[in-house]
Design a protein that fits this description.
The chain is an alpha+beta fold. It has two domains: 1-109, 2-Layer Sandwich (Heat Shock Protein 90), CATH 3.30.565; 111-204, Alpha-Beta Complex (Actin, Chain A, domain 4). The chain is built from four helices and eight strands; from the N terminus they run αββαβββαβββα. A five-stranded mixed β-sheet has the order 1-2-3-4-5.
Length: 204
């Protein structure tokens, strides 16, 4: 039974539509425990509403469109992003990318802090790694870069942690979304072995 759970879980595409919103979002199926499947799908739907709320402007008609990407679906870990665009008919369109990482055996949703050992100083460690990448990749900044937030956006892609920033969070609009890839090998001493990143290292 454990072997079955470690296989990729089923993902179906669902539409969410109103007169101004036409997006696609994922839902999981085929889990042996319906309550956990329901919990994960609830996390995804909550994230859907969060992204729509980020894009909607009270004084502008906002046409929202977009879909999702599955970043990891293996070793009991599901990591995905919802990638939605808000079009304001004249103003610059705005894109929001929000991620969800969950353990499919428990349904637990993991914030960035949950990936690391307590008192691991993950904020400083990841921030320093990002600072090293910024000049080497010629990423322009709006007002310098000090450190990530405790709940910084991230997803897991294979054996890497990908930390990213929203549009104009640290860089000009035209840059889009600055992404920073951090191999799990480089942070193996601070990751929580029982967490999603730990599961990515099980067969090193």
């Amino acid at each position: 039974m454990d072997t079955l759970l470690k296989l990729p879980i089923g993902i179906s595409s669902m539409p969410y539509a109103t007169p101004t919103i036409h997006v696609i979002y994922p839902q999981v199926f085929g889990l042996n425990q319906p309550e956990i499947q329901h919990k994960i799908n609830g996390h995804i739907y909550y994230l859907l509403k969060e992204v729509i709320s980020m894009l909607q402007q009270p004084d502008l008609v906002t046409m929202i469109s977009g879909s999702y990407e599955i970043k990891t679906n293996q070793r009991d870990v599901l990591s995905l992003t919802l990638n939605y665009l808000g079009d304001f008919h004249g103003a610059h369109p705005v894109t929001a990318v929000k991620a969800l990482t969950t353990d499919v055996t428990t349904g637990k949703r993991y914030d960035l802090k949950d990936l690391f050992k307590p008192d691991s100083d993950y904020i400083n460690i990841l921030s320093e790694m990002i600072k090293e990448q910024i000049p080497s990749r010629d990423i322009p900044l709006l007002d310098g870069f000090k450190e990530i937030r405790p709940d910084q956006d991230y997803y897991i892609a294979d054996k890497s942690l990908v930390v990213y920033f929203q549009q104009v969070e640290i860089s000009p609009y035209y840059v889009g979304f600055p992404y920073f890839i951090i191999p799990v090998y480089d942070i193996s001493d601070i990751i929580l072995d029982s967490g999603p990143l730990g599961k990515m290292t099980e067969f090193f």
